[in-house]
Structures are given as C-alpha cells and as structure tokens.
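Entry 14. Structure prediction run on the chain below.
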Amino acid sequence: MSFKSPFLISMAERGYIHQITDAPGLDAAAPVTAYVGFDCTAPSLHIGNLVSIMMLRRLQAAGGKPIVLVGGGTTKVGDPSGKDEARALRTAQEIEANKAGIRRIFERFLTFGDGPTDALMLDNDAWLSGLNYIDFLRDYGRHFSVNRMLTMDSVRLRLDREQPLSFIEFNYMVLQAYDFLELHIRHGCRLQMGGSDQWGNIVNGIDLARRVIGAELFGLTTPLITTADGAKMGKTAQGALWLHEDQLPHWDYWQFWRNTDDRDVGRFLRLFTDLPMDEIARLEALQGAEINQAKVALANAATTLCRGAAAAQQAEATAAATFAGGAGDSLPRADIAAPTALADALVLTGLAASKAEARRKLAEGAVRVDGIPATDPTQLLSPGADPLKLSLGKKRHALLGAAA
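Output returned:
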C-alpha cells in the first residue's frame, strides 16, 4: 500500500518493512512513540542489531519518539527466538556490565533529552524484577492461551527440531508482552518494532494491552537481513561484527562495509546510511569498477554513523595507502619482542583464528609478507624500524611491528 506519513514512507522506500499489524491505523497515527528491546547478552551490540537501531533513527527523524528498552530483566530469562538451544544465563554483574556497554552505542545514533522527540533509554528490570508471581499470573497470565503460544515460531521451531525448551524461556513472550503494556501506560508507547522473528511476541503484547486496558497498539517487523549469498547479516568466519570499537577496530568495521557484495550495495545504502535516496540511486547504478565508489561511500557513511567521521576518514586513508603498496596507520597491529614464526604472527595479528588455520592459508598461497608470497609456517619474521605488512588474500591486512 502507499503511505501518507513521513515515517512509513521512509521505512517503505528504504526497505525496512516486512509486516505491520494494522498498516492504515499506524499510518494515520504516526508519528508515534515506539520502542525496540535489546537484551544484555554481550558488552556490545553487533551489526545484526543495526537495522533495529536504524529504525529508531528513522522514527526520530520523522518526528516520533524512540524508546530504547534495555532488557535488564528479560536477559535473566533468555529469548528463545531463533535459537536451537537455551541462551546461557548471565549473572547480575554480567548484565550490568553489558548494559553499560550497550548504552554507549545508542548515543551515536539517537538524540537523547527531555524534548518531545528526544529518545528515552529504559530498563525493563525496573518493573519486571518487582513482580509478584501469583498476582502476575492472576492479572496477566490468564490472557495467554498456551495453545496459541505453542504455535509461535520462537516455540514451534524449537519443538519441531526436538530441542529442549525450558519453562523459563517459555515465559519470555509473556514478559515481553507485559513490557509493551507497561511502556504504553508509563510513556504512551504505541508501536513495537523488531525483527521478523519477534512477530509473535509483538502480537502478544498488542493483544494483552487490548484485553487489559482496551488500548490500540501497533507492531512492525523488518525482513531477515541477509547478504546476497544467503548468509545472515553480520555473521563472518571471524565472528560477530561488533558496533563498539572496544570489540572491533575502526578499520575492520569500515572494511566490512567496503567489502560488500556488488549485489548488496544499494540495499545496504538504504538500510544503513542517511544518504538521500537520489544519491543512493546514482551510486547503485554504477557499473564495473566504478561500483567501488559506491562501496567506499557506503563504508564512509556507515562508519561515520557508528564510529564518527574521524574514524571513517582514517580508515579510508589507510585503505588507500594499503592498496597503493604502503601501510596505513589504522591497520590491526601486533608487536613482537623476538623473531616469530609466520604462523604465530598470523594468529597474533588476528588474520588467522588458530595456527591450524594459519597453516592452511599458507598452504593455499593466500598469505603475503610485504607483498611477497609466503608459504612456510616456520619462516621467522623480524620487523625492523618499519613494521611488516601481512596480507591474507586481497582484502585483509595487518602490521607486525617490533616491541619498543
């Protein structure tokens, strides 16, 4: 359908919309207060979370009020969605540390404050941890049908695979539904957004609010974001691509976007940057070697949003120096105090996850030292005044320097 509200027009043309519970109703109500929940399972969010963060950014740009709900309470339970086994339960200390790390990410994407469209950051532990279990079951549990809950993807897929589902995980969707009700009562929140795997949880929250207080709420989900080759967004052989620089250097973040498949460039420009649509249309129309201009534009715009303009500029300069034969200052680096075997150096610099992988890459002829092919894992490296540049394939590089 065609939309009238700036929010849904932007969401549709940039490719964020998979399902909406009541599209005409939301279109008429927009701009609204909306939330996305983020559990505290790690000290940083990763690129797989980025589309949800960008949805909140689009909402704020269109005059809505974003709520970032940090799941200090629900992390104690664990979301079964998309998982074949139970998430590891975190201690209270781990959850608090992860919350602190996650909060830093959102300050780069959203404007927080006391204004009508300024973002709020809330923690569902504020209301979940104080619940009386018997009262909660009597007041809210009676509105949930176990028969229906068993049909939800987060439960059904686990059971279909004959994987165990704990009772505590089964409760997760009830708690998430209660979050939506609380946020509506406390802050007038009318929209919950999330990935397509959250559809059932979102619908439960809408039904609960309707049954308990007669509220009309909305849900919107995004499609599963995959790359052109079918891989889940943000999953690589090297592990998760973290949004915070404590977990992933600026260079690696920038290089991820620079290495985007040609077929994904236009879509990722729409989803993960603020570039105008006419500029995106121009960039994605580039052909042949010129598509690299679009990839650099994607890398610079996405990195600027998450890491700042200085990080993007430094990474681009490093890339130019690296591919021109030099060695950029922001490449990953390891320093050694004594001659080190090449296989060990590849592990130290992060180009290989293990010595076994390093030996395999060497045998495949994928490794170069200062541009010279290398195949011997026992070759000793001794950096001089200038660091050695180690390369794995055409796109991954690191420096090996001498310890002071």
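The mean pLDDT is 86.
Filed with the rest of this week's runs.
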